[in-house]
């Protein structure tokens, strides 16, 4: 009885395993084919509407003016436009049998032409219904594909807004009867049903023929594998013939797995580097926890997938794996990044290796990923600091050399001005000389401040107090621009060791840049918090964002995208903050730009 139950169960299982996938595949194929057909219809209709838009070389008013009918009655204008456009729409309709096309005029609120005209001319001159989707197409200026009852009947209708000189003058449409589409779908379904039915019958018959011989072996193998899944030390009883070879292979596999699984998995998952293994076809077979952390993809998302699909668009890793699998070339120290994994930008160093068996057979490739983000940031910071130091030394020497001649020029100009009569024309030029010399002196002061920002004494400065004093300086300008100032102080008593005067200069430079970026008003947010022993001051504006390629350059001396300005403001601010052991970070946020000043915190002495 028990054997009989096993036999029936096995037969049903085999039939289910062979037939059900065919049925499921057929259903999936059917749905996919139906969807593909509908999408192909939509793309075709949209393409026709775009073709009609391009074919209309002018606007409707120009056509009427060319015929001298700009002041004619609505009916006369409709008929004139129909005569001028009917041939065009008929040609397009003739090129696409079964498709209805036409133009609708927004100003005349009427169908101007409907091809093929021999079948649809009765609709010319009639307006569309108030709730017709064509009105939304004209008002929203977006193309749309709608299925449902409309002027022609139950149709799939693609509509495309026609714009001329920045104004929507109407829309073009292309539609096809759903009854025609349903006929095509019905024929496709019948073919798929026939193939699936034949496949199911063949699979069921083949399954029945195989059951008699395999049922007992499969039951024993099933039981043995079940035991092995629970305990790799279990071994199946030896048998003779082909089943014995299968049992022996399973026992050997269990021994090998027991010896290597723990060792290999422990090593791979303990590594801080991401390790990914692929077979010779490019299918991923191994994936450790570090790879998940670096790429943001978990094990379930990666195992069994083709690397070309998984890493689509990521050129460095695709190129490295392609060279390894197709050309047998390994890669060392290639860079991949910045990679946005779970909202964090990572810079990855990758290397590939050929995966070989003990018999030197090529089994696939292995790629190792190392997170070098911190190294990258340190390199960039060090390089910028070196550049700033070199430019600072040059700036100091230039400023010192320039100041003495400027003082002499100013003094001589003032002496000349005193000797000139009050109404002498040259007094205007001496005044210009003095003003320009003062401007150059201020520029020299900026250079000196850039070269030696830490000459001021380090005292305990309350960040909130310095910010309040700085915000007072820009409050009136912000109000005139319609800018709303908001401040959120996480710790009113947070303090740092710095010069309040220079710290105020840092905040003022950043705030002035924010005001200049917010010409149309908005919100300017100033926030402070203490985190990991540092005081963070974030200034976020709603102005235009900074180009990504400029984010690392905004702190470079003399770098500016403005027509006026020296480009020293942010560079001086960065030098000041670095002199106090901190740094300034810039990044684009969802709306605007955020500058964050990071300084080591100093606790208030009570």
What does this molecule look like?
It is an enzyme of class 2 (transferase). This is histidine kinase. Its EC number is 2.7.13.3. Helices cover 54% and strands 22% of the residues. It is an alpha+beta fold and 606 residues long. The protein has four domains: 1-230, Beta-Lactamase (2-Layer Sandwich), CATH 3.30.450; 271-371, PAS domain (Beta-Lactamase), CATH 3.30.450; 377-451, Helix Hairpins (Orthogonal Bundle), CATH 1.10.287; 459-602, Histidine kinase-like ATPase, C-terminal domain (Heat Shock Protein 90), CATH 3.30.565.10. The longest helix is centred in the first third of the chain and has 54 residues, at 2-55.
Helix and strand content put the structural class at: alpha+beta
Q: What is the β-strand count?
A: 17
Which regions have little confidence, pLDDT < 50, spanning 5+ residues?
none
| Oligomer state of the chains in this structure | single chain
Helix content: 40-55%
The helix tally amounts to 16
Protein name: histidine kinase
Transmembrane segments: 6-30
Coiled coil: 31-91
Enzyme class: transferase
What's the arrangement of secondary structure elements?
Layout: H1 2-55, H2 60-66, H3 74-95, E1 99-105, E2 110-115, H4 117-120, H5 133-140, E3 144-149, E4 154-164, E5 167-177, H6 178-230, H7 241-270, E6 274-279, E7 284-287, H8 289-295, H9 299-302, H10 307-310, H11 315-327, E8 334-341, E9 344-356, E10 362-371, H12 373-419, H13 427-451, E11 459-462, H14 463-480, E12 483-489, E13 495-498, H15 500-517, E14 522-531, E15 534-541, H16 569-579, E16 583-589, E17 592-602
Parallel strand pairs: 12-14
Antiparallel strand pairs: 1-2, 1-5, 3-4, 4-5, 6-7, 6-10, 8-9, 9-10, 11-13, 13-17, 14-15, 15-17, 16-17
Helix pairs in contact: 1-6, 6-7, 12-13, 13-16, 14-15, 15-16
């Amino acid at each position: 009885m028990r054997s009989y139950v096993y036999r029936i169960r096995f037969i049903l299982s085999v039939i289910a395993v062979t037939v059900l996938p065919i049925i499921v595949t057929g259903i999936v194929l059917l749905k996919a084919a139906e969807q593909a057909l509908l999408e192909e219809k939509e793309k075709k209709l949209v393409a026709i509407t775009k073709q009609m838009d391009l074919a209309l070389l002018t606007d409707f008013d120009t056509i009427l003016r060319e015929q001298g009918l700009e002041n004619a009655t609505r009916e006369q204008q409709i008929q004139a436009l129909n005569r001028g456009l009917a041939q065009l729409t008929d040609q397009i309709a003739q090129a696409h049998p079964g498709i209805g096309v036409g133009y609708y005029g927004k100003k005349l609120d009427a169908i101007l032409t409907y091809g093929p005209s021999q079948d649809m001319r009765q609709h010319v001159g009639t307006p569309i219904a108030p709730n017709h989707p064509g009105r939304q197409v004209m008002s929203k200026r977006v193309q749309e594909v709608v299925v449902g009852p409309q002027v022609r009947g139950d149709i799939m209708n693609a509509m495309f807004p026609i714009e001329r000189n920045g104004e929507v003058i109407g829309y073009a449409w292309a539609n096809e009867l759903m009854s025609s589409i349903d006929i095509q779908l019905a024929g496709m379904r019948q073919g798929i049903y026939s193939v699936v039915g034949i496949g199911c019958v063949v699979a069921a018959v083949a399954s029945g023929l195989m059951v008699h011989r395999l049922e007992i072996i499969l039951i024993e193998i099933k039981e043995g594998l079940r035991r092995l899944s629970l305990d790799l030390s279990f071994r199946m009883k030896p048998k003779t013939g082909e089943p014995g070879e299968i049992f022996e292979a399973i026992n050997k596999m269990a021994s090998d797995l027991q010896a290597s699984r723990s060792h290999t998995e422990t090593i791979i998952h303990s590594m801080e580097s991401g390790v990914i293994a692929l077979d010779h076809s490019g299918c991923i077979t191994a994936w450790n926890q570090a790879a998940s952390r670096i790429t943001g993809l978990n094990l379930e998302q990666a195992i069994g997938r083709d690397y070309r699909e998984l890493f689509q668009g990521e050129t460095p890793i695709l190129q490295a794996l392609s060279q390894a699998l197709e050309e047998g070339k390994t890669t060392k120290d290639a860079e991949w990044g910045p990679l946005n994994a779970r909202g964090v930008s990572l810079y990855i160093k990758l290397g590939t290796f050929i995966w070989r068996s003990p018999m030197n057979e090529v089994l696939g490739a292995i790629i190792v990923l190392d997170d070098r983000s911190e190294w990258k940031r340190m390199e960039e910071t060090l390089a910028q600091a070196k550049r700033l130091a070199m430019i600072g030394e040059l700036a100091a020497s230039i400023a010192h050399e320039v100041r003495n001649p400027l003082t002499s020029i100013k003094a001589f100009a003032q002496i000349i001005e005193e000797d000139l009569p009050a109404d002498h024309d040259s007094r205007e030029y001496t005044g210009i000389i003095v003003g320009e010399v003062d401007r150059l002196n201020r520029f020299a002061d900026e250079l000196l401040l850039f070269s030696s920002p830490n000459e001021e004494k380090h005292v305990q400065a309350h960040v909130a107090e310095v910010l309040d004093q700085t915000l007072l300086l820009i409050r009136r300008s912000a109000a005139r621009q319609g800018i709303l100032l908001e401040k959120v102080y996480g710790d009113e008593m947070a303090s740092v060791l710095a010069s309040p005067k220079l710290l105020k200069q840092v905040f003022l430079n950043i705030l002035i840049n924010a005001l200049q970026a917010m010409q149309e008003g908005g919100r300017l947010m100033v926030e402070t918090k203490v985190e990991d022993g540092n005081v963070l001051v974030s200034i976020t504006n709603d102005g235009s964002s900074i180009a990504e390629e400029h984010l690392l350059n905004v702190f470079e001396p003399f770098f500016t995208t403005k027509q006026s300005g020296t480009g020293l403001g942010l560079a001086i601010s960065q030098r000041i903050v670095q002199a106090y052991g901190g740094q300034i970070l810039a990044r684009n946020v969802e709306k605007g730009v955020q500058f964050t000043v990071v300084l080591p915190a100093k606790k208030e002495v009570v």
